[in-house]
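To whoever is on call:

I kicked off a structure prediction for a single chain this morning and the downstream step that reads the tokens threw a length-mismatch warning. I double-checked the sequence; it's 150 residues and nothing unusual in it as far as I can see. Pasting both halves so you can look.
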Amino acid sequence: GHAGWSYNWQNGGPMPLAENRRRWSLHDGRRQQAAQRKSDDATAKAQRALIALHTKGRPINFNTVAAEASVSKDFLYANSDIRRQIIQHRKTAAPESRRPATTPSGRSDASSVVKLAVASTALRRLRTENEILRSENARLLGDLTALRRG
């Protein structure tokens, strides 16, 4: 091939190497965002499972949380915050004190705290994604302006 050119399999023809690299870097960025969303979703499911198990007075351990949240035990062990919470629950759970304190609305304090943590995590993720998309949009607008001029 020619220096500075690469083959594009999508449109079946050559394209500038820089353009091909840019497209792949965007693809990689979106793949990373999707992986982060998947991890955040699994973390939220694990947090909700901790609340549900605690509210029901059921034992909290890696097996019960994994089953309740439909996530793998490997994920729970790898997530340091979730792992710490499970270990803490195992240490402090006494059979007679498994029912959490509830608010007048009937919700447990732990439930409200976890819901707030899940919402905060989602908000941070969305702000980051928004910032990335805004910068990508600005760059694309610059590219379009340059093409119109040239």
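Update from on-call: the warning came from a stale cache, not from the record. Cleared it. Sanity check on the structure: Residues 109-149 form the longest helix (41 residues).
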